[in-house]
Give the backbone structure.
Amino acid sequence: MDRKDFIKGSCGICIALSSGFLMSALLDSCKTPLGVIKTQSQDGVVTIPTVEFDKDNYKIVRVHNYNYDLAVQKKPDGTYLALVLMCTHAGQPLVKTGNSYYCALHGSQFDHEGHVTKGPAQDNLIHLQTQITKDQLSIQLKKTS
Ligand code: FES
């Protein structure tokens, strides 16, 4: 093997290895982030196995064809709190920041139970009705506009 063939062969191996590494990294980035449950509703109800809350009592629930994520918390007394992460000022999706929610559009803030802590929003976040049946949590969705 002469020097030219050696360099061509080595470059081919490097390209193949790096493209495999890149594909692996790209596929990893497509996975659902930890703490996020992707699901869909049926007749306006989302159903989630309660086992999802065994290790972590807080989940973001992303419902197919619903405009906003839900923040779902299992409380110490075993009940659940489900909030629509929609700013009540002008409908902007909210961002979780530590133990609260922030609206990047005009700066409203809400605490972990959905109460307004800083305006201009004046109304608390929408609470959704929850129900436990056997080992399933059901969340009744509301139209958000
Ligand atoms: S839309 Fe959230 S503060 Fe205005």
Summary: The two ends are 70 Å apart (CA to CA). The first strand starts at residue 36 and ends at 39.
